[in-house]
Amino acid sequence: MDQHLPQRDRLLTSSRPLPDFEAVGSNGPWLHLADGRRILDGSSGLLCTNVGQSSPAVFARIEKQFSRYSFGGAAVVQPHIQMELMDRLCRAVGRPEDSVALTTCGTLGVEVAVGLARNIVRVRDGKRRGDILTSSLSYHGNSMFTLGVAGNQIRNPRPEDRYGLGPAFPAPYPPTHGHDGHGCDAACAEEVARAIDSRGAENVAAVLIEPVNGTTGGAFVPPDGYLRRVAEICRERSVLVIHDEVLTGLWRTGAPLASCHWEGCEPDLVILSKGLGAGYTGVGAVLVSPELAPLLRRKGVDPLPAMGTMATHPLQAAACLGVLDELEAMDFGAFSARGERLGTSLRSLTGRAPVREVRGIGHLYGVEVAPGLLWLLMEECERRGVFFYPFTGAGDPRSEGLVVAPPLNSSEDDIDFLTAALTDAVGALS
Ligand SMILES: Cc1ncc(COP(=O)(O)O)c(C=O)c1O
C-alpha cells in the first residue's frame, strides 16, 4: 500500500475538497486571484469577514498594540486593552453593564457560557444538575461537548460519540416541526416548556439557542413572539437563556444582536464571535447580564471556566477594536438599504428552478435549492465571479443551498454584482 498522501490531503482541515483558486491580494469583499481574475466573497469567508479583508483600520490598531507589547494575558499585565474592548463591545450591542469573558473562538465561547450558566444557577438556586437544552436544528461548535449537545448531527454522525447528549426540543421551522396545514408560530415555544418539565426544571441550567438559525438550516428566522415566549417559559422555571450569536451578532441580521428584532427576549448570556474578530483574529466573547454576573464572584462559587493561555490576548483585543471602528463608521441608513436590496433581489428567485425557497434577514439569507444541484450551482456562481458557503440542513431528504452573507460594508455595486451573478447562475440551471 502507498503510504504517502498527496500534499493537500495531509492538511487535515476540511472534509470537502480544498478550493483551487489562489488568492494573491484582497480588498473589502474581493479576492484577487493569481490568474488576474477577482472573485466576490458572497458569504464573508466562513460568515466572519464582516468588514471585508485587509482593513487599514484593523491593521492600525494591531500595529499600535504590537509596538507596545505583543503578549500579556489578563493574569500577566493590567488588562487595559481588554477592558476597553469590553466597554466598547457592551455599548455597541446595547448591554452596557454586562460582564464579559473572552475566549479564542466561538466553540470555546459556547463552552464558557455553559460553564458560567452552571455556576450561576448552582450558586443562585442550588440546582442539582446543569443540563443544557438545545434545539433539533442548531450548531454550537466543534468540541466534543458542543457537537454532542447540538442538533446538527451531520458533523457528529455516531450516537455513541455523543456522551448521551443531544438536542431537547424541535426548532420552530417547518422541516423539523410538523403541523397540519399551518406553519410554526409562537406557540411552538411550548415544546421548550415540555422539554424543561420532562427533565425537571431543577436539573436544567439553561436553554441554548441561536436566535436566528445560521448554517445548519440556512438562515431560518423564528416566528414572531417565539423567542419572547421561550424567555418567559425559562424565567417561570428559573432556567437561564443563552443566545448563541456567534454568527448573527454585530449587525449580521441588520441589528446589533438578532434578538433586537423582537421585544422581550433579551437573554441572560450572549455569545459573540465571528463578526467580532471579523476573520482578523480568533475570538469569542460571552456577555453576562449585570443581575447575574455578581454571583460569579461570590465566595465559594466554582472557579471561572474562562481561563486560557491565549484568551484575552492583547493583539486579539486590538483587532476587535479595529473591527468595531469599522462597524461604527458605517452609514447605518445606507447599510440597512443595502440589506433590503439584497433581500428583495434574492427573494425574487423564489420558486425559479432550482431555487425552492429564500429566507433570511439583514445581510443573512439561505437560498435553498432542489437536492443534488447545490454543487453545480456553486460552480456556476464561481464561474461568474462569486462564491458562497453551502448549507446542508434539515428534513429528509436534507435541504441544501447557499448561505448568502456578503461583508456588511459591501457597496451597492458589490451587492448588485452578487445578485446578478447568482441570478444568471440560477438561469443556467433552470
Ligand atoms: C452558531 C454558531 N455557534 C458556534 C460556532 C462555532 O464557532 P467557531 O467555529 O469559531 O468555533 C459556529 C460556527 O460556525 C456557529 O455558527
Give an account of the 3D structure.
The chain is α/β, with parallel strands linked by helices and 430 residues long. It has two domains: 7-54 and 331-429, Aspartate Aminotransferase, domain 1 (Alpha-Beta Complex), CATH 3.90.1150.10; 58-328, 3-Layer(aba) Sandwich (Aspartate Aminotransferase, domain 2), CATH 3.40.640.10. 33% of the residues lie in helices and 15% in strands. The protein is built from twelve helices and 14 strands. It has helices spanning 44-47, 56-68, 80-92, 106-125, 144-149, 190-199, 226-236, 274-277, 314-328, 332-347, 374-383, 412-429; strands at residues 23-27, 30-33, 38-41, 99-103, 131-133, 204-209, 240-245, 269-272, 284-288, 355-361, 364-369, 386-387, 389-392, 400-404. The protein has a six-stranded mixed beta sheet with strand order 4-9-8-7-6-5, sandwiched between helices. The model has no long low-confidence stretch (mean pLDDT 94). Pyridoxal-5'-phosphate binds at residues 105-107, 110, 139-142, 210, 214-215, 244, 246-247, 273.
Summarize the structure.
Helix 3 packs parallel to helix 9 and helix 10 runs parallel beside helix 12. 33% of the residues lie in helices and 15% in strands. The chain is an alpha/beta fold and 430 residues long.
Shape: globular
Strand order of the largest sheet: 4-9-8-7-6-5
User: What would you report as the Rg, rounded to the nearest angstrom?
Assistant: 22 Å
Bound molecules: pyridoxal-5'-phosphate
Biggest sheet, open or closed, and with what strands and sense?
6 strands, mixed
